[in-house]
Amino acid sequence: MKKLTAGVLIIVLSSSLVVVNAQDTKNDTVRTQEIQEVVVTALGIKREKKALGYAAQEIKGDIISDAGQTNAVSALSGNVAGVQVTAPSTMGGSTRITMRGISSISGENRPLIVVDGVPLDNSNVNSTDTQRGAGGRDYGDASFDINPDDIETVTVLKGGPAAALYGSRAGNGAIIYTTKSAKKGRTDIQLNSGLAFESIYIRPKLQNQYGGGYSDKLPTATINGETYNIQEYETDASWGPKYDANLMYLPWYAFDPEFSNDYLKPVPFVAPKNDVDSFFNTGVTYTNNVSVAKSFGDTNVRMSYTNTNISGIVPTSKIKKDNFSLNMNSKLSEKLKADAIFNYVHTEGFNRPEVGYGDNSVAQKFYHFGQRNLDFEKLKDYKLADGSQRTWNRTAFDDATPLYSDNPYWTIYENTSADSRHRFFGNAGLTYNFTDHFFVVGKVYGDVYTQTISSRVAVGSQAVSNYSIQKRNVSEFNYEGRAHYNNNFGEFSVNTFAGFNIRDNKTSLLDGTTVGGLIIPGLYNLANGVENSLATNADSHASVKSIFASASLGYKDMFFVEATGRNDWYSMLNDSGFYPSVTGSFVFSNALKADWLSFGKVRAGWSSIAQGGTPYVRGTYIDIRSPFNGSPQYSNPNVAGERDLSPELKITKEIGIEARFFKNRVGLDVTYYDTKSKDFIIAVPVDPASGYLFKSINAGEMTNKGIEAMVTVVPVKTDNFSWDIAWNFARNRNKLINLYGNLQNLVLTNAPFRAQLVAQVGESYGSIMGTDYVYDAQGNKVVDENGFYKASEIQSLGSILPKYNMGFRNTLRYKTLSLSFLIDIQEGGKYFSTTNMWGMYSGMLEESALGGNREAGVVLAGVKEDGTPNDILLDAPTWGGTYYNTVDAQNVFDASYIKLRDITLGYDLPKSLIGNVFQGVRVSAFARNLFAWNLSNKGIDPENTSYGSGNIQGLEGGSLPSTRTYGVNVNFKF
After folding, report:
1. 499's torsion region: left (phi>0), alpha (psi -120 to 50) or beta?
2. What's residue 68's pLDDT?
3. Is residue 497 within 8 Å of residue 566, measured between CB atoms?
4. 465: pLDDT strictly greater than 60
5. Residue pair 238/844 in contact by the 8 Å Cβ criterion
6. Which of 4, 75, 101, 260 is least buried, going by the fewest C-beta atoms within 10 A?
7. What's the CA gap between 905 and 812, in Å, rounded?
8. pLDDT tens-digit profile of 2-19?
9. Phi, psi of 742 (to 5 degrees)
């Protein structure tokens, strides 16, 4: 390895390794130190990076904490080549993360997440309806429990060869979080305090020239002998009259005598002073962390507590999270070492906002259907003295019953939800060194949590009043033992280990909901239902028993070859699985000995990994359904099981090169990979005469081919100033080769109305299916006899998968001042927008105003079926309606974006200013999601089209605005 000399030398390799060499100026000589990069790999084993024959990238925890991140998974966006992250919400919402594309049709496509060796459950409890944009609350992923303030490093194992030792659960790679620990001989006390503000940014552009209704004239009503202009209160659309300050009318809030200032008092028909944007708050996040690390002889202990309080942009929405961690290790004797890590997390949410097309989705009421003349200051008076609701969407001027829409303030104050999660996770183990070269390790890893979710629909709401509650208990324990042997024999090095793992997973679920409405208003209890409440429960238990081994052989610190193998025995599948990998690397810089080459390595790897099915996937179990007229109902399930199912299989081949030049001023890391996945566990249609609609089988094949690149450059470096550039790029090509027999597509889900998300043979995974335009031979769009665009047959309108992702991080340092910013880029991919469809249909969106000239109507650009130019005039509401019932392609948009993902400015206060009380004080200001460019639909953030972290993506059903975040962190070291 090339030796480096420096004063204070900081080298960032692949956005990861930071090494500091101290200067010794005695006799004007500078000591040198050979840098050996060490990274955490599978099973938490530390390895020299030069010996690895697979792609692994490490980033420091400071990148996460300095940017004020509250989610340790979404913080990876733009920082790691080959990793795609979709994080639509800062309110603890779902974070979708994939690496190297999609490899399973209906199975898990996310990587395994490991914290200090604990495989962390990352379940997403959002319903299918929520994920497809049909309404519901986003309760996020269990990985939200990871505390960003405790992270030391993150290692991303990107493919099968890197993660093969984890067996069937890491076919999509693994993300390994290593938390901070006490250092021998040191005492470290830190206090970190952060404050962040969040404001709405990208949201649909609403028209501001026409009011509610479908007629261009206001209706009238005679009240107490006097005739007034009124409004079509029952209409949730805005094709009404043009605003006119001389046109007086009675607004929705003019019919309640107890509001005497407004009762029967006409107001001008004009745009509201307080529009939709005034509904949203400035979100505020407070984060406080205190940690104490101390060494007691041969025992090292670190304790940390973090409190996070998040208030969202939707009034009343909030999350509180408390993280407590204890990290200990002790040398019990010359040969025996003990270590343990314990974490407790309490996450408590209140009124996480509903998203998608649902009764309690304020986004749906603001951007899909509504009246543009509503003043939100008036809407705040949402309730009468008797507790009944006041809403703009009255059944009639003399009937206050909500017709379609609740008052949005009734929604957020009365129709609320609450969720709570108590979680314990950690590990304990012993290490015994028989000799300097042979040792054994025994570990127990545990992850246990209880989650409770409740929701309310108040009496007086537009929907039937309701109370529901769900309790979920999840546990996983892993019992692991390993024996290691490491040694050098002359010019050869050997690194080997073998072990076993026993994994035990249990989940229990209890659901209860009232039926027929609530009897007593304000009493939320399952006993308060009009009819007998329904309750269901389910339990699952799965186990995997495994043995594994690894052997790595090195020669002259130049040639390395490694082989691993793991065999998993599943409780839920008949077949066991053997999952091997072989990797090799050649450190050619040790052979060339060139001054311009600091380090160079080529590597190659192969693996064959699988993932098992869900518990009970083989069996066919009777469904117990809701009673009918008091009689129980039993039925066959929709999907028949299959006793002979085998695990899905994924075969990976990859090759790569790592090099650093000119005393580490330039570096690159490039990987090409080729994966083939087959034997998917999917449910295919069968003859209903069999008693089932589908049957689980092994079938299908899918490929992913791509390239990942990481380039680092240090253009300027002096004693006081440095500039570091890191660029990452990932391009993946996915293709579904076949399914089963003549089956050409498999429907993953339906959007709330028009489109479908499918796996289509011959195309990339996640095709959006719908109608397209019909074109003539010259490429002109064709209209029918009514002047509407003709619609094609159902076909693919594009895949949700992007063409490529890349990120640019620049870091500039001047003495103790640093500036870092990240530009995150995505090119390609598609999404379907229900907001665009209904917003145009109802006359809400800016484009529907036709520049203030709706009265002129619309002639669609195109030709008639006979080839002559189209001259058929459509009135504005009819034209808007075509966004729903003709061509779905009008509502499909490109998911490309360019974002200034984060920017951080940090400063270490000089010792002369802070005195002797502190060892150091660092102040950092940050901003996230500051700007976005290159959006196909300027009113929708492509990242906001996700409501879960599973396979259902790209169906925007009704999203809240995306947000910008600004904040400051102060770190005190004592």
Report:
1. beta
2. 76
3. no
4. yes
5. yes
6. 260
7. 10
8. 333 333 222 232 333 333
9. -90, 5
Are 497 and 549 in contact, with CB atoms under 8 Å apart? yes
Give the list of residues 6+ apart from residue 642 with CB closer than 8 angstroms, or none.
618, 695, 696, 697, 698
Residues 566/638, Cβ–Cβ less than 8 Å: no
Contact (Cβ atoms closer than 8 angstroms) between residue 57 and residue 14: yes
CA distance 383 to 406: 11
Secondary structure class of 336 (helix, strand, coil):
strand
Question: Cα(294)–Cα(304) distance, rounded to whole angstroms?
Answer: 12
CA–CA distance, 955 with 96 (Å, rounded to integer): 14
Query: pLDDT at residue 785 above 90?
Result: yes
Q: For residue 839, what is the enclosing H or E element?
A: helix 834-841
Confidence (pLDDT) at 631: 77
Tell me how far apart the alpha carbons of residues 82 and 707 are, in angstroms, rounded to a whole number: 8
CA 488 vs CA 34, 439, 559, 585: distances in Å: 19, 15, 14, 18
200 Cβ partners below 8 Å, 6+ apart? 277, 280, 313, 961, 962, 963
Interval 892-910 mean pLDDT: 95
pTM: 0.91
Q: What single-letter amino acid sits at 332?
A: L
Residues 313-346: tens digit of each pLDDT: 999 999 999 999 999 999 999 999 999 999 999 9
Q: Return d(Cα 560, Cα 51) in angstroms, integer.
A: 6
Q: Where are the beta strands (DSSP E) in 314-360?
A: 318-331, 336-350, 354-355
CB 522 within 8 A of CB 386: no
**CA 104 to CA 650: how far, in whole Å?**
9
User: How is residue 26 annotated by DSSP?
Assistant: G
- pLDDT > 80? residue 831: yes
pLDDT at 170: 87
Q: Helix (H, G, I), strand (E, B), or coil: what is residue 120?
A: coil
Look-up of token digits 């927008």: 833
> Rg of the Cα trace of the chain?
31
Q: Kindly report, residue by residue over 140-196, the tens digit of the pLDDT.
A: 999 999 999 999 999 999 888 999 999 888 889 999 999 999 988 888 999 999 999
Residue corresponding to tokens 């069937």: 168
Q: Binning pLDDT at 50, 70 and 90, where does residue 21 land?
A: very low
| Bridge partners of residue 972, in order along the sequence | 191, 921
Residue 142: name the closest of 479, 470, 474 by CA.
Answer: 474
Report the alpha-carbon distance of residue 97 to residue 553 in Å, rounded. Answer: 34
Mean pLDDT along residues 32-44: 69
Q: How far apart are CA 782 and CA 789, in angstroms?
A: 6
The beta-carbon contacts of 341-345 under 8 Å, at least 24 apart in sequence, are: 341/116, 341/179, 341/426, 341/427, 341/428, 342/424, 342/426, 343/115, 343/147, 343/423, 343/424, 343/425, 343/426, 344/422, 344/423, 344/424, 345/145, 345/147, 345/321, 345/421, 345/422, 345/423, 345/425, 345/449
Q: Does the pLDDT at position 35 exceed 60?
A: no
Q: How confident is the model at residue 34 (pLDDT cuts 50, 70, 90)?
A: very low
Which segments within 740-888 are labelled E, that is strand? Answer: 745-750, 756-760, 767-770, 795-799, 804-814, 817-827, 830-833
Question: For residue 185, what are the contacts with CB-CB under 8 A and spacing of at least 6?
Answer: 295
Spatial contact of 657 and 670, defined as CB atoms under 8 Å apart = yes
Phi, psi values for residue 61, rounded to 5°: -65, -25
Q: Which of 788, 745, 791, 789 is CA-nearest to residue 768?
A: 745
Structure tokens at 946: 């996700």
CA 256 vs CA 235, 342, 396, 462: distances in Å: 20, 58, 13, 19
Q: What is the pLDDT of residues 571-594, one digit of tens each?
A: 877 677 889 999 999 999 998 888
Q: What is d(CA 744, CA 125) in angstroms, rounded to the nearest whole number?
A: 30
pLDDT for res 971: 92
